[in-house]
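Issue 218. Parser rejects a valid record. Input:
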Amino acid sequence: MLFHSTRGGDKDRTFEDILMQGLACDGGLFIPDFWPQVDLESLSTKTSFIDVAKEVVPLFTSSSFSKQEVLRILDNTWHDFDHKDIAPIKNLDDKTSILELFHGPTAAFKDFGLQLAAAFFNEVLAKNKKTAVVLGATSGDTGSAAIDACKKFKSIKTFILIPDGNMSEIQRKQMTTINEDNVFTLKISGTFDDCQDIVKAAFKDRSFLNDNQDLLAVNSINWVRIIGQICYYFYASCKLTNFDQKINFSVPTGNFGNVFACYAAHKMGLPLNKIIVSVNENDILNRFFTNNDYSKKDVNETVSPSMDISVASNFERLIYDFYCNRDAELCNNLYLSFPTKSINLPTDIWEKTKDLFLSYSVDDSMTIATIQGIFKSHNYLIDPHTAVAAVAVKKLNKDIDCPTLILSTAHPAKFPNSIEEAGILIDEIPKRLSEVFEKKEIVYEFPVNKSAIFDFIASKN
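Output the parser choked on:
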């Protein structure tokens, strides 16, 4: 299994190459040369998430690791989950269930992909006797999951850029209260997109790196994060239906990595009816799926901040694989002028949407009302991102007649203001979240100035 770029200029890359490189040299995103097929009959006999992962992950790693090496790594990859099931399912009614992905150490679904990436990062660095800088931008949960996954590996120094505002206090403090000499949280006086632009510039600049040192991407452009997420789609489907029927997934999304992981699982053999792309008022994805309009607009702050984006980084992978039928030239041409010019596909190509995708955009009032409604009806508390996905299921109900899984991507205690606005008292806050309020914040503040940030990284590296 080798990998290539969505834009055609970077190809024949091994798993180790794309793990350590992150973004393709031509600006595109890496994707496997073909979709490996999962043996559903074998997978249906697996009873744990780890056992499912051991069937899925090795399908992508053979160019760099033997299967036995991968199985050894996976035995110790996912750690500090507070539920024995790792990804349990809560049934709401006979048609709708919730997949709880928030039982990891940072109480968000990002732990799945980032713990897998960190385990492989460490393996490669140790083998090659190298060190690395991890650099990422976050509007919510990516940063804390990256810090937690990488902090125990002393060969890695982690620098996470966060915007000034637009995340809950708990989310911020999960990153700013880590007292480790290889962890640095930088607060930037700008938006998430400003932070993301600085990270992209850093991958072109690299002047702050030492000799024989790698720069690692932890945002969902890194394919290895997607692999970790593919695993829980197979695991959840196995638990819910044992692959005996197609199901729907309602996925709250910002950067589209979680949706693309669902799509990838489908391409690998997962029985799937519809993927429901659930977004908040930052609706670039909904505008595309409903009106063929992929155009950048200003970001609005919402009660579901992890989805407050203007451009979905992973969407290019879907454009390339699903819409362009792996035509790299066509994909590259679409992105040449984006985001200055919007992407509008030829109608005959865009109409493929209805074969697999539905979407819905949810405003804050609907989000809060849904938190209230599900708590009242089921005595079950959800976070605002999960609520967005639940609204989409309700609004699109007439178009989905199969069992539906709503992805719950974060613990509700991470968003106390939204829960309070819904008039609900959180009975119990996990200790891993409440203890951040007792710790001192360590944060470095910067203007939107890439040179100053690069100089800081060099000084701490």
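Fixed in the parser; the record now loads. Residues 194 and 448 are 7 Å apart (CA to CA).
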